Automatic annotation (TrEMBL):
Keywords: Membrane, Transmembrane, Transmembrane helix. It comes from Micromonospora chokoriensis. InterPro entries: AB_hydrolase_1, AB_hydrolase_fold, AB_hydrolase_sf. It holds the Pfam family Abhydrolase_6. The chain crosses the membrane at residues 20-38. One of its GO terms (biological process) is acylglycerol catabolic process. GO terms for cellular component: membrane. This is Pimeloyl-ACP methyl ester carboxylesterase. The keyword Membrane applies.
Length: 331
């Protein structure tokens, strides 16, 4: 009887172990399946589907209709891909060095619709779709570090006929412009930064937390619209063509770029071109006051100004004032 009981207990334990092994095996299969489904081995940015690409292109073209008509469309081949630029003729002095406008993350040339009319009063303007972001530029090689970010833009400037270019960057475009001035300043006449991110201050904890849900491609459109509106301090975005383009890009395009690294104070001090920093006093993306202080402290040839009531979308809120500041600065 005792031996029978021992065998029963042994059988029960072995059955239990087999159950645990089966459960562990099932869990392993599920884990591998999830990892496989979520894997993203692509080394360069891409649109997730033909339908998503077409939706973005439709929104892009609709937003481009709000810009003046470009007199030239350029596709510049670089070592990292083909970069789309538009040229707009302006000003009265054809010899004046042009501006090159760099948009923020998940946006493209149409983001400058409000700024072009006033900027074109003083000189010619190029706009660019950043490589590796949703737009008409086509990334063809991984961009793995700050040097690579600078290199493709440097190659774009080398391809342009003008000997000197003034860079104007908003948000992440500000980081891109300053990164070029740090690493490859040839042909850079000056740099204008409109509430640049990750140049003089880190991102706020709130923007990091809010960006996580909208980074999920299957998140509802309302989440992305809400995030865009939040960065503009509550401005409505539902009927704004450029906002629809940004939302479509966030949903349709997978960005595969190295994380932007903040330049050190020594690197900022070593920048040998004039830099105009226009901070948004009510920006939710970072501490604008601390950023302005660091810019004043570190830049050897810097001019710092704060628009006290501006949100991070200051380029659309104060286009005429910004154009006047830029014109006076580059002149």
């Amino acid at each position: 009887m005792v031996m029978k009981r021992v065998r029963q207990v042994g059988d029960s334990l072995r059955a239990h172990r087999r159950g645990l092994l089966r459960a562990a095996a099932a869990l392993a299969v599920i884990t591998v399946a999830i990892a496989y489904a979520l894997r993203d081995p692509a080394p360069i940015g891409y649109f997730t589907s033909t339908e998503s690409h077409d939706r973005f292109v439709g929104a892009y073209r609709e937003a481009m209709a709000d810009l003046p008509e470009p007199d030239r469309t350029l596709d510049v081949r670089t070592g990292y891909g083909v970069v789309r630029l538009y040229h707009f003729s302006g000003g009265t002095d054809p010899a004046a060095a042009p501006l090159l406008l760099l948009p923020g993350r998940a946006s493209a040339s149409p983001v400058w619709a409000d700024n072009l009319p006033s900027l074109l009063r003083s000189r010619n303007v190029y706009t660019v779709d950043l490589l590796g972001e949703p737009g008409m530029s086509i990334q063809q090689r991984p961009i793995k570090n700050t040097a690579a970010h600078a290199q493709w833009l440097h190659e774009v400037l080398l391809a342009l006929p003008e000997p000197t270019i003034h860079l104007v960057g908003v948000s992440f475009g500000g980081w891109t412009a300053m990164n070029l001035a740090v690493h490859r300043p040839q042909k850079v006449g000056s740099v204008v930064l409109l509430d640049p991110v990750l140049v003089f201050a880190g991102l706020s904890a709130e923007v990091v937390l809010r960006s996580i849900p909208v980074s999920v491609r299957w998140a509802p459109r309302s989440w992305r619209d809400s995030f865009t509106s939040w960065t503009a301090n509550g401005a409505p975005v539902e009927d704004v063509p450029v906002a629809r383009m940004i939302e479509a890009g966030m949903q349709a395009y997978v960005v595969k770029l190295s994380a932007p690294a903040r330049p050190s104070e020594d690197q900022l001090a070593a920048v040998d071109v004039p830099v105009l920093v226009l901070m948004a006093g009510k920006s939710r993306l970072h501490d604008a006051g601390e950023a302005a202080k660091l810019a004043e402290r570190s830049l050897t040839h810097g001019t710092v100004k704060t628009y006290p009531d501006a949100s991070h979308a200051l380029n659309g809120e104060y286009p005429n004032e910004i154009a006047a500041d830029i014109s006076a600065f580059v002149t």
